[in-house]
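Hi C.,

You asked whether I'd gotten around to modeling the 169-residue construct. I have! Everything is below, sequence then structure, no commentary in between.
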Amino acid sequence: MGAGKSSIGRRLAARLGMPFVDADTEIEKAAGMTIEEIFARHGETHFRDGERKVIARLLDGPPLVLATGGGAFMNPETRERIKRGSISIWLKAELDVLLKRCLRRTNRPLLKQGDPREVLTRLMAEREPVYAEADHVVPSGDGPHEAVVEEIIGLLARRNAHAPAEAGA
């Protein structure tokens, strides 16, 4: 939450010539309500179940750049699906950067469950060990998002350069 997934994802998709999809937007379309409404009416468990299903559908489709919500990678089934057929990138930001970005918007249900700094600190402590399983970790600081996109493009280029050649190619 607040790491820049959507903004960086859009820019990355444009550079790669691929479609960009924000999982949260797709969840809202599927549910016919906002994430905030889903949390309020049905709770986080219901939201996470829908999130898992929507991400599975998206990953089964054509290649794309997918921005998942902050908690999506915490689901073991979703994490395994991502590991199996995708390249995962953790956009890692410091607490103060996340807090500054998150407080610009009022539609973050998890931050309404107490002091935002304390909530983010707790979420970071819970999530960072799992996020560390991502294929790549890229810092997302206060600098321009285009610099983060450049770093990701470089990672992908190096990754492709080291990929084994396909048999018969």
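If it helps when you're writing up: The first strand starts at residue 20 and ends at 22.

Thanks,
B.
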